[in-house]
Amino acid sequence: MRPQVRKELGKTQADRGWQITYKRKKDLRGDVVLKFPALKSGIMTTNVEYKHYQDADLVALDAKQALAGVTLRNGASSAARNIGLAAGAIVLAAIAFVFFRKRPQHTKIVGGLAVPDQITPFSVVAFLRRIQREHAARLDEGSRTALGTQIREIESAFFSGATPAGHGPDLEAVTRKWMQAVG
Questions:
Q1: Which strand (E) or helix (H) includes residue 136?
Q2: Same structural domain for residues 130 and 67?
Q3: What is each CA distance from 150 to 101, 118, 132, 154, in whole angstroms?
């Protein structure tokens, strides 16, 4: 490093710039605080600047901050933090998947006949008509007549408009009843 020398009206003035590069030991763990060296007392200065790199930017510090020190972050600690955050995000995503996934309903299947996944008037009537067509042999004459009556009751309650909404038969109970009758 060569000092720059300037002459002003018989005075000689020297400018010196010092650059200190700090390299950490490979086995050092955690963050470290680098304190800038203090000037010896008795040295006359006109201007002292303290600067350090923060990412790619050169940042100026005042004397108080420089003497307090600058925290040098360890790259390994930030990598570990990023891995921890990624692992936490994966765990949260897995919990959300398990919690919000559509759980399959336990469908009882008897002789190829399954309870509808969604209990609606349409699905229940279709279910009962399928029992009437494919499984009538398993029912006695009174049950076959009751099944036809049940279908007409659901149709008139939900499709004719004569019955107020919500006053029809309990569709889940009807489905369970006829599934047990066939099974």
A1: none
A2: no
A3: 35, 19, 11, 6
Location of structure tokens 């889940």: 172
Count: domains in the chain:
2
Cα end-to-end distance, the chain, whole Å: 97
For the entire predicted model, the pTM comes to: 0.41
Residues 113 and 168 in one domain: yes
Q: Position of tokens 């919690």? A: 99
Distance CA 65, CA 71 (A): 11
In a domain, 87, yes or no: no
Per-residue confidence in pLDDT tens, the chain, 183 aa: 444 555 555 555 666 777 777 676 666 666 777 777 777 888 777 777 888 777 788 888 888 888 888 877 666 566 777 888 999 999 999 998 888 886 655 555 556 677 888 888 889 999 899 888 888 888 889 988 998 999 898 888 888 776 666 677 888 888 888 888 887
What is the span of the domain harbouring residue 57? Answer: 4-74
Q: Which helix (H) or strand (E) holds 12?
A: strand 11-15
- Domain boundary (74, 101, 124) is at 74
Residue 95 covered by a domain: no
